[in-house]
Amino acid sequence: xxxxFKKNNDKEDFEKKDWQQILLKSxxxxxxxxxxxxxxxxxxxxxxxxxIDENILHQSALPHLQEKDFTTxxxxxxxxxIADVEISDDPSIIEQKLFNGYxxxxxxxEEKRFAFIAAxxxxxxxxxxxxxxxxxxxxxEAFVESIDQNLNLIRKRxxxxxxxxxxxxxxxxxxxxxxxxxxxxxxxxxxxxxIRQRIQDIDFDEITDSSYLVQLISDNKHSLFPQMLDTERPxxxxxxxxxxxxxxxVDGSPHALIAPTTLVEFFNSFEDYLLNWHLAxxxxxIRLFAIGFSILVTPVYVxxxxxxYELIPKDLLNTLISSRRVVxxxxxxxxxxxxxxxxxxxxxGARLPTKVGQTIGIVGGIVIGTASVEAGLTSNVLLxxxxxxxxxxxxxPVYRMxxxxxxxxxxxxxxxxxxxLLGIVYCFCIMMTHLIRLTSFGRPFLxxxxxxxxxxxxxxxIRLPFEKQRMRPEYLRTEQPVRFKKKKAKAVKKDIDx
Length: 498
Description:
By secondary structure, the chain is an alpha+beta fold. The chain has 16 helices and twelve strands. The chain is elongated and about 105 Å long.
């Protein structure tokens, strides 16, 4: 006994093994020895103190191991009131278990076997309301940085055995947990295999957020358009899983990824499903108009004033001439100055603390806008147009697509300066060609517009009533295309007083 105790305290013995030699350099690597008086057996705990809850170790494990009778590691499972206890003889998993919050238990009479006791320390923030996808009505829960907490929020909304959760580890250094969620019997296995294979093929050292996966596994990594939809709402994830899509949850990220997806989904808010279908369709159309307005209004202004004066009505032309009478810059420079000013205000407001950022955005916009007009650097008409375009771009429900919309205005401006309205049409054709060729995990990104599928239009540009949405999206190739059976409603009898 004494020889075993001395041998395991010897630092030279540890240095024979690479993983122990490295761990000895860390102050949070602990190795403690204890003694069971009933059977005269010494045992050892090895753990990372920053990753475990020592209350679990000292209150739920140690008293039982010191006072109860046991002779082998197999007896540990019987005497410990902890469900997650694993016995193994594979030394290669020691490092993985230690850094996942397990305590390794070794005994003097079984030096080649190990028991791993779960004692993870959970350091997570409490649930908060959605900040990016906020809705006036509906649930007010948002994902947090703990993958287990996020999976709990999804599980309680889909309490069925068909909901499958596959766990993967990504990152050669970070060893980040990644969960793939889908409903067995509904989701197309080909889609699941594609996403699983791409995640497994990732060769990257550190994955700290779901945004890394978006850039690493998308079909076209150089496209401005995101090909995976991210959301912070567990109710939205539950909804898309029922449609036959796949969700990817990354440990440390408060956003879940949804795939495959289409372009029109980036302009749909989850609150659309919580409103009457008339209102939801109206708001969607307003959103789509606002996006087009945000991209095209400034390039059309530049093209018209540069090449196409004859298109401007006489009354409006007088207004434009008077507003630009003292402006020494051509329309393209005037527009670029204001566009870049708006982008600077956006970035300053986003990077500063919340209260200061709001003040900078409001005060900076008013002061700079007024001063630029009075100084004669820009016209008041263009200032109004730029402000409306910036306001319209904020109607995009998904932040990633909002950034894409912000950037798209600049190539349209360049083409408008070069060839006028023809340049705008040419730039639009280039964008549409790219979108037609773009796919999301092998599925057409522009569906149901191209290829045209009338069945899927029921929840695209407008939202029809729920009773009209019996079929799941065709492009997903689900195993169960029908969501619910059509039933005839019984006629309501009139009240006797009517």
